[in-house]
Structures are given as C-alpha cells and as structure tokens.
Amino acid sequence: MLFQICAGRTPQRGVPTFSDSVPAMVDLLQIMATLRSPKGCPWDREQDHLSLRFHAVEEVYELMDAIESGDDHEMAEELGDLLLQVVFHCQLARERSAFDFEGVARHIADKLVRRHPHVFGSVKVKDVDEVWANWEKIKTAEKHGTRHARPSALDGIPKHLPALMRAEKLLKKARKANLLEPASSRPSRKGKATLARQLFELARQALARGWSAEDLLRREIAKQERSLRRQESAARVTGAVHRARAERLAVLARPTARRNADHPRKSGRKNPIMGFPPSERPQL
C-alpha cells in the first residue's frame, strides 16, 4: 500500500527512506478494520464521521500541550492518537466506498510535490516569500473551475476555529487583499503585555455580565466579514469598470491613430493651407 505511494519517487541523496515503517502502518489499518468488523468493538462500530469530529480537535489540543512541554514520549503518544483519527475516518469512508487511507496519502503526497516545484521541479526561488507566492498561485489554479474554488480573498477560513484565531486569520487575509489600512508601528513588549491584560479584562467583563466572550467575538467577526466582503465586491466591480473603459478607449484610439498618421491636419504636421498644426492654430 504505502510502497505504491512511494513508487516512482527517486530518493534524493541525504534524504532518508521509510520502508521500515510500512509494516506498522499496515498493522494499524488492519486493526482499525477489525475493530469496525461485525466481531469488533461495539463502541467503534457505532461511530461515524460526525460523532468523531470533536475527538480530532481534542487530540490536536493534547498534542499542542505535549509539544509545549518538550516531552518527546508524550508527543509521540499524542501523534499516534491523532493518526488514529485519520485512520478511523479513512476506514469509515472505505466502508461506504468513498475513499481510503491510500487515496488520502496519495493525495497529500502529490499535492506536496505540486506545491514545491522548487524542490521537485526546475522552478527557482529567492526566498520564502516567493515560495508562498508560488504556493498560492498553484493552489488557486488547482481549485479554479471547481466547487472548491475560492473567488474571495477571504475564503478558506475554517468556521470552527476559536474566535480569536478566526479574527486573526480574517484580518491577515483582509490586509493581504488591501482591504485594511496598513498596521501601525510594531508594539513594544510593554505594549504587548498591556494588550494581553486588556483582552483578559474584556473576557472577565463579559463573564461578569453573563455573556460568552467567545460568542460575542464570533458575532462581531461575522459582521466584520460581511462588511469586508461588500468592500471587496465593490472594489472588484470598480476595477472591472476601469478595465473595460481602458480597453474601450484603447480600441477607439487604434484606428484614430492610424488615420491621424496619414492625415496632415490631424497628424500635427504643418498644414500648408492653414500654416499651423491643429494644436497651434490661433483661436478665432
């Protein structure tokens, strides 16, 4: 299975191979299939994609704790728990003939190769900014014309992100699309501490009034996003009008320029009758 995913990829010098890990991955897939079988575990058999969705979120947060603690043993365990969520969803999808683990792994492997032409192709890049620019161009081209296309610069923000993270994502995308004014000067360390206290105090005030700071911010984000999308649409319409006007003027100017070049009265050359080019003719 995983051997097929790696087929056709020539290992680069100094890059390790991972064939030794394939048996463990196959074992995990087989164990998951057994747990879901008629003779498997009752709890595993009654799960579906929806019932598992928050388990994945919880595993990600536990992995974050392990990473921040610097405990490698804990990190390896939490990565395994997160991998289990991937395998579980793949098994559920396999049972309904939607996709399987090999398809998921193949998809991400191919995507990584496509999105890194400076590593797996002949594209040259100068810095990380060019890497990101290429990534966005390739991603846009891949999604163009599909139901996953993202016509708005504000598309692609997961709706279930925590409110503060979602606000930051929205602001970054809006700034990149020139929908926001440039940020002010970078705050000092003291300014950061002050802002952090203000955020905490806002959460405390919301709680004191019986409100959820999370819900309040989510509602404001939705309001701001609608406003930014209207602003983006208006800018797109204005830009289209300007482009159409410029194209029309260019079309009208081309035959006029050709006629003027052959007509002494319109070309700016001295007119033997009037004695002046049109631009210098005395006003009567």
Question: What would you say about this model in short?
Answer:
This protein has 284 residues and is mostly helical. It contains twelve helices and no strands. It is extended.
Walk me through this protein's architecture.
The structure is a single chain. By secondary structure, the protein is mostly helical. It folds into three domains: 2-9 and 21-115, MazG-like (Helix Hairpins, Orthogonal Bundle), CATH 1.10.287.1080; 119-149, no CATH class; 163-178 and 199-262. Helices cover 67% and strands 0% of the residues. The chain contains twelve helices and no strands. Helix 2 crosses helix 5, helix 4 packs antiparallel against helix 5 (72-95) and helix 9 packs parallel to helix 11. The longest helix is centred in the last third of the chain and has 50 residues, at 213-262. The termini are far apart.
Order of helices and strands: HHHHHHHHHHHH
Instruction: Tell me, rounded to a whole number, the average pLDDT.
Output: 84
Distance between the termini: 90 Å
- Coarse structural class: mainly alpha
CATH architecture of the largest domain: Orthogonal Bundle
Q: Total helix count?
A: 12
User: What's the β-strand tally?
Assistant: 0
Percent of residues in β-strands? under 5%
Rg (CA only): 30 Å
Note the main sheet. none
Which ranges are low-confidence, i.e. pLDDT below 50, for 5 or more consecutive residues?
1-7, 272-284
Helix content: 55-70%
